[in-house]
Amino acid sequence: MPFKKHYFSYGCLILFLSLSAPLSAAKNPTVTLTPQKKKEIKSLVPLLHEKGHALIQAFLGPESSAVFEEEALFIDAFPFKDYPLYRVENQGLFFVNDVNDTIKNVLRKGRAWEPGNRDLIKKYVVPGTLVLDVGSHVGTHTVTMSECAGKEGLVLAFEPSLTTYRELVHNLAANRCHNALAIRSAVGKDQSYVDVIVSHPRNEGRKYVVKSSGGQDRTLQIPLDDLKLENISFIKIDVENMEADVLEGAKLTLQRCRPVILIEIQGNGERPVQLGENTKEMAKISKEKLKSLGYKLKFIHGADYLAFPIESLDEP
Fold first, then answer.
1. Alpha-carbon 311 to chain mean position
2. What is the distance between the terminal CA atoms of the chain, rounded to a whole angstrom?
3. Which of 44, 70, 100, 183 is most buried (CB neighbours < 10 A)?
4. Which CATH number does the domain housing residue 263 bear?
5. Residue 315: inside a domain, yes or no?
6. How many CA atoms are closer than 13 Å to the CA of 151, on its beta-carbon side?
7. Count of C-beta atoms within a 10 Å radius of residue 23
C-alpha cells in the first residue's frame, strides 16, 4: 500500500503495512514471550525504525547513514532477558525493565499509565487522520493513538532519547502498530542538534533536551513546520518544559490543520532548578502562544491541558 499522500505536501517514499489492532488487556500483567512472538517482534522492529528514519533523513544530511546504522545496531541488541513483557489494562503490551521509574512502576502492575489522558485520546483522535505523539517515551499513549487512528490513519511518534526510543520501537512492534512511525528526534523551534539530559534518576520520562555540546545522547531537533504535514486531528505534546519551542516551530501546521492538542505545560520540576528557568513565566508564554494561534485552553489535571481551536464546538 503506498504511503498516503494526504499526510504530507511533499513527496515521500515511505511504505507502511496495514494495521493489526493492539492486543487486548488481560488480568495477568505478565506475558510469556513465545519464540514465535519474539520472531514477529524482531522482524517488525527494523521496519519501524527504517520508516521513521526515512522521514528525517533529509534533515540529517551526510550523517544520515551513519546515524541509521548506529541506531540499528543498538536497537538490534535489545536485551529481551532484562525486559519482561507486561499486559497493561486497556493500553497494550509493554516491555518493562527492572528500573525504579514512575511510569514503569505503574506498568509492571498491569495498570494503565494516565488512563484519563488515554480516554481523551480515544475521544478526540479522528480515524483515518494523522496523529502526532511529541515526546512519546515508551509508547503508552502511542499505542492507543495507533488503535484510534485505524488502518487508514498514521501516527508519528517522536522520542529523542536513544535508550527510550529502543523501548518505544519494541513496544510498537509488540502491539503490531503497523500504522505508526517511530522517529528518533526532538521537536522544537528550529533545526539543530540537542543533548538529552537525565533530570531525575527515578523518572525516565523527565529527560529533557538542551543545545548540544557533544553529549553522549545527541540527536536531531526539527520543527514540525519543516515536515509540512497535513490532515492532523490530534497532537500530544509532553516535552519536559520545552512546549513553547514546539509550538513556535509548529505555528503554520497548527494554523493549517487545527488539531486538538493535549499538552503538558511546565511539568518537569527538576529542569527549572537545574537550569535556573522561571516556570511561571515559561508557562505563561506557552499559554499565550496557544491563544495567539487561536486556541482555547481547558485544564485537565496536574500540568495537563486540552487546547481546542476557538472555532471548535468543544467547550474549553
1. 27
2. 39
3. 183
4. 3.40.50.150
5. no
6. 6
7. 15
What φ, ψ does residue 156 adopt, rounded to 5°? Answer: -105, 120
Cell of 191: 533545526
314 lies in some domain: no
Residue with cell 481523551: 120
Single out the residue of 18, 3, 12, 29 nearest to residue 94, CA to CA.
29
Residue 217 belongs to some domain of the structure: yes
The dihedral built from the CA positions of residue 22, 28, 33 and 37, taken in this order, carries a sign that is: negative
Residue 239 corresponds to which cell in the numbers above? 516535552
Evaluate whether residue 316 is within a structural domain: no
Number of structural domains in the chain = 1
Residue pair 280/311 in contact (Cβ under 8 Å)? The answer is: no
**Residue 181 belongs to domain spanning:** 24-309
Say if residue 78 is exposed, middle or buried (CB neighbours under 10 Å; 0-12, 13-18, 19+).
Answer: middle
What does pTM read for this prediction?
0.88
pLDDT in tens, the chain (316 residues): 444 445 655 334 333 333 333 444 446 799 999 999 999 999 999 999 999 999 999 999 999 999 999 999 999 999 999 999 999 999 999 999 999 889 999 999 999 999 999 999 999 999 999 999 999 999 999 999 999 999 999 999 999 999 999 999 999 999 999 999 999 999 999 999 998 877 566 656 566 667 777 777 899 999 999 999 999 999 999 998 889 999 999 999 999 999 999 999 975 555 655 667 678 888 899 999 999 999 999 999 999 999 999 998 776 6
